[in-house]
Amino acid sequence: MKTSKKGFPDNFLWGGATAANQIEGAYNIDGKGLSSADMVAFVPKEQRTGGHAIEITSKQIERILAGKVDARFPKRHGIDFYHRYKEDIALFAEMGFKVFRISINWARIFPNGDDAEPNEAGLQFYDNVLDELHKYGIQPLVTLAHYETPLGLTQKYNGWAGREVIDCFAKYAETVFRRYKDKVKYWLTFNEINMMPLSPFTGGGVVIDRVENKLQTIYQALHHQFVASALATKLCHEIIPDAKIGCMLARMETYPYSCKPEDVLKAQHGNQMNLFYTDVHARGEYPKYMDRFFEENDIALHKEPGDDEILKKYTVDYISFSYYMSLTVSDSPQNERAEGNLFGGVKNPYLKASEWGWQIDPIGLRVTLNAMYDRYQKPLFIVENGLGAYDQAEEDGSIHDTYRIDYLRQHIAQMKEAIRDGVELMGYTSWGPIDLISMSTSEMSKRYGFIYVDQDDEGNGTLKRSRKDSFEWYKRVIATNGEEL
């Protein structure tokens, strides 16, 4: 008689996750071109609206490029990982990381996105980073596109709204696969591919004021990304036969507010609209429930001959996702709203919330792990999870972030339960193991790290790195393979 697994597998990949545009800096050196992230200004707290979706107009881009916008662009400077990667990777190694998730900034390799030849200085930088990781026995997990569309492709094709970008991406993917084939065995195509409907500029470099039909453009751009992802999967398998390549979703497990059938139906629809993306990636075809959505919203996708065959033939090896919170939906408009990333819902009366209003739901992670594994029967990988919080340094410089430890402890405990349930879980990379620039607001004060970076929202500070209490805690979690939480 088989017994259930009691703990994390011996080869479980513990680590942390970052994005190039939030840590690297060095936006204008060594031949790097501008990307969509370089256009995103800091948003002061008093100016933020619910969700903080990033939309940039054609005129704003013109003004930014002409130097006529009085604003700071923190993602251009990050936390200077570009010059400090050796110091940072040594700290990750001290924690015992088995894996470190990074992204390659496409505009560092092809400055305009469609250049004839890649930028050697950019390629060499990632060679250096990968070599440093391997020095400590840390496996790199590399995301090809993490909210970094070269600005040149936005100007020329309106980003992923143009089908031409598929070939540009395939050329970029082939270039890095060939260059790093002996150094990277775990790849992801698009970070949180479901960002496109929420923020087309973030998700695909699409300037929405350049089009007449917003929804049509968004789903056409998504189709182009699906095809590009499948082609990248094909290339990866051909060039690096022993590599694994996956997709990445911002997972939003959605609950009904009550057992009222209308609430249940609304929650079911919410989960379908969230899992639509992984349905295409993992099953290789558009799910039938999208037919009605497209029809009711007058969306007519243009597909080239062979697109459906490409999607069907080149499905992903594993499914990765971010998980920060669950959502609750109601058919009744009077229920109080809840904040949350770029996603919204109503307040769940059974959950507490973070300082940013994100509803904390560790059990929801177990729910979604089981639901996704039941649905796809493919290995899963949690590549983002963490707590953004205001950290207060004591007089001696120490930071007692027990709230972060509590959050992570509860989520890791539920991962362990999901493994006992039979879920095949490859690994866990907590978001922002080192403090970094926020994706949506470009603030620094929303901190996730085990490592504190001395920099404030205005860009002031020494950039000195220091260990928080959570550093030693996570080190012990990894050393005991999740047995000591």
TrEMBL record:
Residue ranges crossing the lipid bilayer per the database entry: none
Gene3D superfamilies: Glycosidases
GO BP terms, alphabetized: carbohydrate catabolic process
Organism of this sequence: Paenibacillus lutimineralis
Keyword 4Fe-4S among UniProt keywords: no
Active site positions: E384
Family matches, as Pfam families: Glyco_hydro_1 (PF00232)
Similarity-based family: Belongs to the glycosyl hydrolase 1 family.
GO CC annotation terms, alphabetical: cytosol
GO molecular function: beta-glucosidase activity
Domain of life: Bacteria
InterPro entries recorded: GH, GH_1_N_CS, Glyco_hydro_1, Glyco_hydro_1_AS
Name the record gives this protein: Amygdalase
Keywords: Glycosidase, Hydrolase
